[in-house]
TrEMBL record, chains A, B:
InterPro entries documented for this protein: AceGlu_kinase-like_sf (IPR036393), ACT-like_dom_sf (IPR045865), ACT_Aspartokinase (IPR054352), ACT_dom (IPR002912), AKii-LysC-BS (IPR041740), Asp/Glu/Uridylate_kinase (IPR001048), Asp_kin_monofn (IPR005260), Asp_kinase (IPR001341)
Alphabetical GO biological process terms: diaminopimelate biosynthetic process; homoserine biosynthetic process; lysine biosynthetic process via diaminopimelate; threonine biosynthetic process
Enzyme's top EC category: transferase
Catalytic activity: L-aspartate + ATP = 4-phospho-L-aspartate + ADP
Name by which UniProt lists this protein: Aspartokinase
């Protein structure tokens, strides 16, 4: 008998009818003899509606109260799903994050899970109940206040519960039926992956793929919880996220996909003295302003004046703030210039295969060059190549690379088939 | 420095704007130097909307899950009021019933408060915060499940908290600005009472007055918590409910009002053998069917056949069920007949004054008789006379009695002025 954790997002739960369909699916899993634990996000637009109400009573609401307010959403959806399950003849109990033993840091609105002590859930499972656990929330041990977990919080709740309960799998349901080699809306012949390693999924999440949040994949990898990405609208098995990229035999290592991200801006600080301390000072200022940095590049300094340039990317929404800050620092300091560009797009090729196969970088650059697309910046990891191009070239870049590495259509792309790194 | 508990009902909280007005009122009380604890019901129609959603997923939802669902409503309103308070510069903390230490029986949907251990609220008050506590809910110690308290639950929560915190007063806010000598919509010159004793308020609540729930007044009387019935739309002081009818000096004892109730039906079981056991069997059957009985009358048996008749009233919605049950028992047993009448109205005169002044009953009956209104049934307590009349005569009965006992207009009615019992 397996223990299965399922997670359903807001759009899978947006009406009474959808809730009943989800309940049927849950009962089906139980009927197959599994212990079933389900984590539900708030229904449809509930969280947005609550945020809107809050803004009407106070434009800058206290964070503790915001968490008390928002957690009502998951309370509603989980109890409704439990009721729907009961109408199909099975028994279910819903629990808040606190009742399920999700212990977090104190940081309201963006708390981190410290541990999960799911005693009450385990007891209820042993009594034969299906357990619903409110996602996106927990409790802080010191203050005893309810907390919410920030973006991707429900996915993280599900994975954390799965780890604590030693589940066999954690199924993440949304309106997407798996992880694809590229966004199917841009690349019509993108293929659904049967399986992908944790590290490759991490890279995907980090460079723009919207399917799973980075923190959720990190948690799954750390605790070795297999994830299955499935659609709540079909019975397709979806994509299994499991295993380490280290364990993939060289000859089976492939490229898993092309991800893209159009949400970033590029900031370059030109002419920083190449001495200790300058870069640190700049990054500390950016961090204190709570601006999240993605890519960072510093190339070797120019011999002539021992200065170097540092480029980083960040969300476009934070761009103006970053520029304001850096321009001020430039006026006070020794840099030559600060430039800004929010018409960039990032395209990334991901896969265990590139570790062991020479020629991938060359093929990558050649493919874009042949398409007349200029690469403005390159940054890589062991299993990823990311480049910045003009945002207007982004979608074509995705298609070009997807084709160049034969990721589409019937055949599974094999890196060693005619390419090299 | 006083400790004030305030309770706001759903209609006082039905929009963001109303919530901000309520928050202003709360902050005003705090500014006067009071410790302030506020109990909020769910906003406007929230509870009904949640019930509707529940019915869509399961027509017979499990009670435990219904309580998990409905308690979301109070969570939302209390956190929003806390946010609004913060926008006016004061600090507030919201708590669930469970967090505030409201311990209840296990009975989901209709739990009874066993005790209140408001340690966390007391701590927060000592730190200078205004405390919001979700009404209508608590927690059961054994199961650790959340429970709801049934009708009037938020009023009861407020009174129970006031008792546990030794509050100076518990203010109940609604869209009604006090307790009147009769329903002002029926009796235009009805007067607002400045004060009323616990027992008189109990009788008012018991016989149809909709202002306060019976259980809430009982709790206040048992724990000696002064109540103030006020409007959330004005600054009028409202009506103070306090003191025992025993403590009212004879010469000050007055009549406090005329209440009416058009929601009941009358059931008469004719020809019950006047022996031990028959009435008990009938009432046990009615109780097991969860039919609430209000008035009960049994007069002396007829000498001829040693049989008697028993009449009781119950909510009209339960009438058909009661009749079905009793007709079955009649067929199996020894009664002569069972009759039903749902065109009755109940009118009641209430006041400490009738204890010590002869002639009130006579005046009562004469007044109705002169108006051509037939009294079909009489039942009294020490401080109340209730009669059943035709429902079509009900409103006129209220006016007739209100006039007969000079309860209207400028002068306060004094029983000893020209009337006797």
């Amino acid at each position: 008998m397996a223990l299965v954790v399922q997670k359903y997002g807001g759009s899978s739960l947006e009406s009474a009818e959808r809730i009943r369909r989800v309940a049927e699916r849950i009962v089906e899993s139980r009927k197959q003899g599994n212990d079933v634990v389900v984590v539900c996000s708030a229904m449809g637009d509930t969280t947005d509606e609550l945020l809107d109400l809050a803004a009407q009573v106070n434009p800058v609401p206290p964070a503790r109260e915001m968490d008390m307010l928002l957690t009502a959403g998951e309370r509603i959806s989980n109890s409704l799903v439990a009721m729907a399950i009961a109408s199909f003849g099975a028994s279910a109990r819903s629990f808040t994050g606190s009742q399920a033993g999700v212990i977090t840091t104190e940081r309201h609105g963006n708390a981190r899970i410290l541990e999960v002590t799911p005693g009450r859930v385990r007891e209820a499972l042993d009594e034969g109940h299906i357990c619903l656990v409110a996602g996106f929330q927990g409790v802080n041990r010191e203050t005893k206040d309810v907390t919410t977990l920030g973006r991707g919080g429900s996915d993280t709740t599900a994975v954390a519960l799965a780890a604590a309960l030693d589940a066999d799998v954690c199924e993440i349901y949304s309106d997407v039926d798996g992880v694809y080699t590229a966004d199917p809306r841009i690349v019509p012949d993108a293929q659904k992956l049967e399986t992908i390693s944790f590290e490759e999924m991490l890279e995907q999440a980090a460079v723009g793929a919207k399917i799973l949040q980075l923190r959720c994949v990190e948690y799954a990898r750390a605790f070795n919880v297999p994830l299955r990405v499935r659609s709540s609208y079909s019975n397709e098995p979806g994509t299994l996220v499991n295993g380490s990229v280290e364990d993939i035999p060289v000859e089976e290592a492939v490229l898993t996909g092309v991800a893209h991200d159009a949400s970033e801006a590029k900031v370059t600080v030109l002419g920083i003295p190449d001495e200790p301390g300058h870069a640190a000072k700049m990054f500390r200022a950016i961090a204190d302003a709570e601006i999240n940095i993605d890519m960072v590049l510093q190339n070797v300094s120019k011999l002539a004046d021992n200065r170097t340039d540092i480029t980083f990317t960040c969300p476009r929404a934070d761009g103006p703030r970053a520029m304001e800050l850096l321009k001020r620092m430039q006026a006070e300091g020794e840099w030559q210039d600060v430039t800004y560009d929010d018409h960039i797009g990032k395209v990334s090729l991901i896969g265990a295969g590139m570790k062991s196969h020479p020629g991938v970088t060359a093929t990558f650059c050649e493919a874009l060059s042949e398409a007349g697309i200029n690469i403005e910046l390159i940054s890589t990891s062991e299993i990823r190549i990311s480049v910045l191009v003009r945002d207007t070239d982004l979608e074509e870049s995705v298609r070009v690379l997807h084709r160049a590495f034969e990721l589409g259509g019937e055949e599974e792309a094999k890196v060693y088939a005619g390419t090299g790194r």
